[in-house]
Amino acid sequence: MDHMTKPDMDEAARAVLARNDRGGYTVPTDRLYPFQWNWDSAFVAMGFAIFDIDRAYRELERLVEGQWDDGMIPHIVFHAPSDTYFPGPEVWGTRHRIATSGITQPPVFGMALRHVHDAAVAAGRPDAADRTLALFQAALRSHRWWLSARDPHGLGLVSILHPWESGSDNSPAWDEALARVPPTTTTAIRRKDTGHVDPAMRPRDEDYQRFIHLVDVYRDCGWEPARQWAVAPFKIADVQMTGILARSTADLIYLAEALGLEGERAELASMHHALTTGLAGRWRPDLARFVSLDLVSGEDVGAPTQACFMPLVALHVDHTQLQAVEAEIKRWLEGMVVGLPSTAPYSQAFEPKRYWRGPVWAVVNWLLADGLRMNGALELARQIEQSTVSAIERSGFCEYFDPTTGEGLGGDAFSWTAAAYLVLSRRGHGPSAQATRP
Ligand code: DGY
Looking only at Cα atoms, what is the longest distance across the chain? Predict the structure, then answer.
């Protein structure tokens, strides 16, 4: 892609989104991920907001068509059939009016909604308040679900019950907890992903057996949150998920103020307080990282992964913490062609090409750079943003990148990488992140 100029790249990014449009929603990439995915769509909506506000709202509106009555926004909405993905709707066996999966994904939705709303207001769109309000109500219901279903004991930390919920499917962060999950399944496993991309880049078969074991367990609970919580063999109070939820909560507080919703603002402020207090307690000064908590073993999750820095999107850390985090991130970047690796290169678990065990993800960098900017680490934020943009310009809109070579890996023509390009290539000229403080 060396020959492409910035306008060409912009055009190419928009073409990726157009190519993956299936009628108001965007698939992450053709064939490998042929439905609407939750956090992918939130990032994509922010990309659309740069050049097509109506389409940006539409992306979020189509996602909430899949929202459950209890408030959960599922991780996949199966709007239209496809036989190129496993596990499809028949494996999930959920009972929503549209077929969906039964688990969720990082709630970037609130952050995306604020982004789209601000773009709509700046463009003078007369429908901004109405469209934002409907989506705000959906987001608030989903945040209530998060707190009641996934933090029933009031830790101020929300839990994932399946590695797929984290979005970081085979991260080393889950290794110990996943090893306790039996590899037996009642569902026959028919992987399709390894027919689309090199199996060496994907989770291993044994990981899939355990992933599907968990689906079997939760389906047998009728997808009822309290029953799942009671029997879950995998339950991690996750700092990445909680950081993203807290950040989205701050963005919903901003929107409640903009929409004049005082009761909702107060409710969100109390959620925000609980989540940021919970997160702050997960800082480990000796590691210079935040750590998740395995609720089955009661142990800290020690694996050094990108998740450990994600609380920065929500917390205003003190000077000592910020210096420690910056030094640790710089250590991870040493000798890398593109950062930030999803697993520390000094870790035994580091595999630079295998999915979440080392590769660099543009959307992770987007969030981390926002967090660093919000905390005043502008130079490091810019470095991460620029290295992401350069990797995309060199290797294309790939799913992710090998940090040691910059090579593009996984699926190609990936929607969220295109969205990340559109947003991050416009940065780098100052503190432009929309950090909020309720
Ligand atoms: C997959 O199938 O790889 C997904 O990450 C699950 O959402």
Answer: 56
